[in-house]
Structures are given as C-alpha cells and as structure tokens.
Design a protein that fits this description.
256 residues; 2-enoyl-CoA Hydratase, Chain A, domain 1; Lyase 2-enoyl-coa Hydratase, Chain  A, domain 2; 2 domains; six-stranded mixed beta sheet; four-stranded mixed beta sheet; 12 helices; globular; binds 4-(N,N-dimethylamino)cinnamoyl-COA
C-alpha cells in the first residue's frame, strides 16, 4: 500500500494521508517524494481547490526517518535534494490545511508549518526535538516557528526539544484552531469545503500576496496587495460575486 494515500473528493478537496503507522508516520524519502509529487500535480489541476494533509490518530508525522539518516554523510544529504521536495509543498498555490493529531515532531512539525492553516487536536504533540538526536531543525523549523510564535518561545522549544500540546500550539498562534482529537479531520474538511466554494482567483491571490508580502517590506507588500486587488476586478467572478450580492442570490463562481 502507498505510503501516502490520496483521495480526490467531489467537493474539490485533495486529501493526503501519510501512511506509515509502523514508524509513527516518520518521513522517509518515499513519503517526501509522494507529498511533493501530489502537491505539484494539485498545483495545475483545476479540479483541486484545497489540499488537506493528515496522518492518523497516533501521529501526523514523528519527524524525518531517523533510521534513514543516522549514517548519512553531508554529500548524501545534499544529493537527496530534500529541499526541492519541501519547496513543492511550500509553493503549492492552492490552500494547504494540516489536520494534526498525535505527534507532529521535527520534520512533522515543519511539514505542518508548510501548510496555510493548521487544525490541531487538543492532545496533539508538537515540537522540534532534533537537538535531542544531535542535530537541529533542517526544513524551516528555526525560521517558521519563530515567525509563528516569536523568538523567545521558538528558542525555548528548539533549544530544549521540549514538546507542546495542540491547545498550547493554538494559544501561541501556531495552530489556527484547536478541536477535540476526534474532530480534527472533520474540522479541517469543513474549512476546506468552505474555501473550495470561494472564487478560485481570489483565493489564489490572497494566498500569494499573504505569503510573498510576509517576506517583503510593508510598503512593497501593500503595493502587491493593491495590484492583486485591482486585478481581481478583471475577473468574471468579481462581477458575479457583487451582482449576486446585489440581486440577493447565491453566486456561482467559474474561476475566470
Ligand atoms: N524515525 C524513524 N522511526 C521512528 C521515528 C522517527 N522519527 N519516530 C518513531 N519511529 C519508530 C520507532 O523507532 C518505532 O519503531 P520500532 O522500534 O517499532 O521498529 C516505532 O516508530 C514506534 O515508536 P516508539 O516505540 O518510539 O513509540 P512511542 O509511542 O514510545 O514514542 C515518539 C513515540 C514519537 C515519542 C518516539 O518514537 C520518538 O521520540 N520519535 C522520534 C521523534 C524525533 O526525534 N523526531 C525528530 C527527528 S529529526 C532535513 C530536513 C528535516 C529533517 C531532516 C533533514 N533535510 C532538509 C535534509 C528533520 C529531522 C527530524 O525530524
């Protein structure tokens, strides 16, 4: 059976389930390859509106596969070109939602942070424990965790390897929403279904401007927002959305 199960749902949601229960969903080369491939394919598939990534009740992903890297040399790591696989997820233009139950450690926490929205189970276990096995976060943990929760909390977690719960992740601003463990996937799918019904061009522009703007000076970011805002007035969906409001009916969006 595949180590990432993909389910294309009729409501425009692509559901990706990491499937290595025997290894707490540790991310090996195959899982990373499949996630990258599926996210790249979703980028150009008009029928996919939102991607949801999840694991199982015990683990979202307990990190990179330690067995597969314990004896690696720097050159071997370089030749694995893992950063290109991570980039395929980060660059997916469709909204990505991480539905997190159980362990989201190391590369698993970093994978969740590649998403745009994180739905966490109350008792999920997040953390960057790489320091405890002699290394450091290598797929964005030092940077994305800092941007999400601030330097002082991020330093605490990266330097000690101490974990935190889904509720704590929510309270710190790492998770978008915290729900009872049993409701994580349903909550993520419900949000995904809401987004899937929105005008695709507006969704695409919101994601692109928010991510690009976060790395730009404020004035540049505001200009990006202004240009994208103005451009949307050339879309059929803008006319449809506003006319539907004025005519007191439901809009019907076409993605054009
Ligand atoms: N890798 C490999 N196997 C793992 C694993 C992992 N990260 N996590 C769990 N497993 C395996 C265990 O070895 C065990 O396998 P068997 O012994 O049954 O063969 C099985 O899953 C069940 O695990 P446990 O018996 O340990 O289960 P427990 O419930 O007792 O504990 C645990 C669950 C998640 C707390 C524990 O397994 C654990 O501490 N796991 C390691 C967590 C961790 O340290 N994660 C960070 C790994 S370092 C890179 C970018 C990023 C990275 C690397 C490179 N590049 C760009 C190159 C990221 C690095 C990391 O994530």
């Amino acid at each position: 059976m595949s180590e990432v199960l993909d389910e294309r749902r009729e409501d425009g949601i692509l559901l990706l389930r990491i499937n290595r229960p025997e290894a707490k969903n540790a991310l090996n080369q195959e899982v990373r390859r499949l996630l990258a491939e599926l996210c790249s394919a979703a980028a150009t598939d008009d029928t996919v509106k939102v991607v949801v990534i999840t694991g199982n009740d015990a683990a979202f992903a307990a990190g990179a596969d330690i067995k597969a890297m314990a004896e690696a040399t720097p050159i071997e790591l370089m030749l694995r070109r893992n950063h290109e696989q991570w980039q395929a997820i980060a660059r997916c233009p469709k909204p990505v939602i991480a539905a997190v139950n159980g362990y989201a450690l190391g590369g698993g926490c970093e994978l969740a942070m590649h998403a745009d929205i994180i739905i966490a189970g109350e008792n999920a276990t997040f953390g960057q424990p790489e320091v405890r096995v002699g290394i450091m976060p290598g797929a964005g943990g030092t940077q994305r965790l800092t941007r999400a929760v601030g330097k002082f909390k991020a330093m605490l977690y990266c330097l000690t390897g101490q974990t935190f719960t889904g509720r704590e992740a929510f309270e710190m601003g790492l998770a978008s929403k915290v729900v009872p463990d049993a409701e994580v996937l349903d909550a993520a799918l419900e949000i995904a279904a809401t987004i899937a019904k929105m005008p695709p061009l507006a969704i695409h522009q919101i994601k692109e401007v928010m991510l690009a703007g976060a790395d730009a000076p404020l004035e540049t970011a505001l200009m990006l927002e202004r240009k994208a805002f103005q451009m949307l007035f050339d879309s059929a969906d803008q006319k449809e959305g506003m006319r539907a409001f004025l005519e007191k009916r439901k809009p019907s969006y076409r993605g054009s």
